[in-house]
Amino acid sequence: MRSEKTNRAPLGLKIAAAAGLAFMHLPILLIFLYAFTTEEKTYQFPPPGLTTQWFAVAWNRPDVWAALTLSVKVAAIATAAALVLGTLCAAAVSQTRFFGRETVSLLVILPIALPGIITGIALRSAFSMADIPFSFWTIVLGHATFCIVVVYNNAVARFRRISGSLIEASLDLGADGFQTFRYVILPNIGTALLAGGMLAFALSFDEVIVTTFTAGQQSTLPIWMLEELIRPRQRPVTNVVAMIVVIVTFLPILGAYYLTRDGDQIAGAGK
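Structure tokens predicted for Spermidine/putrescine ABC transporter permease:
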């Protein structure tokens, strides 16, 4: 009985936690609320009425579809590139020893540690110096710089949990490097790669700062939303699109959490 009482959180801590959660999530609930308002030009509270007409309006606006399509394409290609490069970097850093290994690891994670505006300015300067026109591919390259970090962090952590005896046993039994990766390593790191890919996709899908410096005249969905807020036209449509962004980014993050929550066991340990 005494241990149960001592494990209970104090009332003040519960109130503080509830206040923190409310501070973070109430603005998101307000976005959802104003997606149904009948008021077109202002954020009047409480809303004068509720309607679902703005979902049809957003569905029929070609600029929304163009921005959404661009964001999905960029996120998909940036995630695919990050999965390949991030996995290779993680394998090199975790499975081999060489001079400057820690420096390489630092350089890989540096893009996500730096402020986004620094990364954006650096990429824009590099593209300008190389006379590379700003296009779809410059956005992909910009997003890949930080998507690689997400995949790398997930993969390197899982690589370090794989017992070396598994790989040695596979090689001793006659498997080559590719077969060892396919049948031994990949099943152990698969969920980590999937989780890293989900997080990378979500991170790319709602990225604003780096995209601003690398997009040129194109507008991804977050950039479109920012422009709509500056020059309001049918405000509830922006909130409807914001709901889509919240859902699209929340589901991969939730999936990544469930995929990696049981990843603390070392594969092959004790065998």
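The CA atoms of residues 77 and 140 lie 7 Å apart.
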